[in-house]
């Protein structure tokens, strides 16, 4: 329902939304207001755990793949730009300096086969004085070939 014209929305509110809740007495669900939210227009503000900053921080390792360090800056901010959740202002720039991985890929072959590898391990490969560290994206074993194992790594970091 569109109750006032104090919105930047151009249509009636038909958007799907969700509310972070906790179980109250008698099994009733109530909005979780445990996040400290200041500078809001009301003391009844909730969903602080789903703020834009919280969502960026939860996915920082993936978003940070674009570069190291990566600074996200607000282009514009309407409405509630003065809100602070915890200690983080909702209009502050975010610096992402710990990417989970990069956008790079490394492929190589080798002769030795031991038939085992850990898909969760961080592998290290040195070539031409440069060390590549990454996670296995793909591995294929060809037991009767000279280059019997082919690896494809998603590069996390490069150290020279």
Tell me what you see in this structure.
The chain is mainly β and 160 residues long. 7% of the residues lie in helices and 33% in strands. The protein has helices at residues 52-58, 60-63; strands at 21-23, 29-31, 37-38, 70-72, 84-85, 88-89, 94-96, 105-110, 122-127, 130-141, 149-159.
Record the strand order, biggest sheet: 8-11-10-9
Q: Which whole number gives the mean pLDDT?
A: 81
Range of helix content: under 10%
The whole-angstrom Rg is 24 Å
% residues in beta strands: 25-35%
Task: List the main descriptive attributes of the protein structure presented here.
160 residues, mainly beta, 3-stranded antiparallel beta sheet, 2 helices, elongated
Write the layout of secondary structure elements.
Elements lengths: L20 E3 L5 E3 L5 E2 L13 H7 L1 H4 L6 E3 L11 E2 L2 E2 L4 E3 L8 E6 L11 E6 L2 E12 L7 E11 L1
Antiparallel strand pairs: 1-2, 3-5, 4-7, 5-6, 8-11, 9-10, 10-11
Q: Summarize this, please?
A:
This protein is mostly beta strands. The chain has helices at 52-58, 60-63; strands at 21-23, 29-31, 37-38, 70-72, 84-85, 88-89, 94-96, 105-110, 122-127, 130-141, 149-159.
